[in-house]
Amino acid sequence: MRSSADADLLQSDLDKLYQWCIVNKLLLNVEKCSILSFTRKSQPIFYSYQINDILLRRSKPVTDLGVTFDTRLDFTQHIDNIVSKAYTKLGFIKCNTRHFSGVLALTVLFFTIVRSGLEYCCLVWDPYNKNKIIEQVQTRFLR
Predict the structure, then answer these.
(1) Which residue, of 13, 71, 123, 127, has the fewest CB within 10 Å?
(2) Which PANTHER family does the annotation name (predicted)?
């Protein structure tokens, strides 16, 4: 947003979206709707928006379909979340498979339970800058 005119255009688009939903008999759960502004500015300008005369709340971060978005799009919190979950799952596997001797079975468990969570939507959040943190989970599994 560079000016109040941009904010007015966005509000107009939100109004049109709401009218389209009414025409097509779709319900918007406005209570679940929120605003997240992506910016690298230290002092961003924020505007208020509404749908059906209900003021939308401003959120940071927002989790959508399991991916955590923050205002800077650096995905640090998302990566921390998935790595934490991966360590929990890895601990579960190690605790419950102490008597397994087959490497193949352990590998299948790792790929289906742990690695699938680490790679979920990775094209969206692109882990290029956090590869070491993610690879540490795999290294711990190999020990």
Answers:
(1) 123
(2) REVERSE TRANSCRIPTASE DOMAIN-CONTAINING PROTEIN
